[in-house]
Amino acid sequence: xxxxxxxxxxxxxxxxxxxxxxxxxxxxxxxxxxxxxxxxxxxxxxxxxxxxxxxxxxxxxxxxxxxxxxxxxxxxxxxxxxxxxxxxxxxxxxxxxxxxxxxxxxxxxxxxxxxxxxxxxxxxxxxxxxxxxxxxxxxxxxxxxx
Length: 146
Ligand code: FES
Known about the structure:
Elements: H1 3-16, E1 29-34, E2 41-49, E3 52-61, H2 64-77, H3 82-97, H4 111-114, H5 123-138
The protein binds FE2/S2 (inorganic) cluster.
């Protein structure tokens, strides 16, 4: 089995059985973002405990890449600080824009997306969940200043 097949299977599994799907009641932070290229939408709700992300739920009306991205992201950010989660998203963004194959340990779970980065039209699909996280953090700027 090639690495590409393994990565594809990981994405398919998350797209078919997304983790942390849904909407939290009384979230501390929430945001809805739209992919301007296709009109698809993603809603994120976050529960915080101080600096820490206690829980994260997403509702995705988008393609399977977008769904898989939201699912993997939710697993990565729960129990992280909001600041750390934002840093991960920004590193992912850098990795999507650079040619460099090296990725930090922080973004390792996102490697299945990085092999797809030559498909430039899908970058926004991969990034939509992280954009929602940024939008949430903007409501809580004091916790994300670096
Ligand atoms: Fe709409 Fe991917 S095609 S989010």
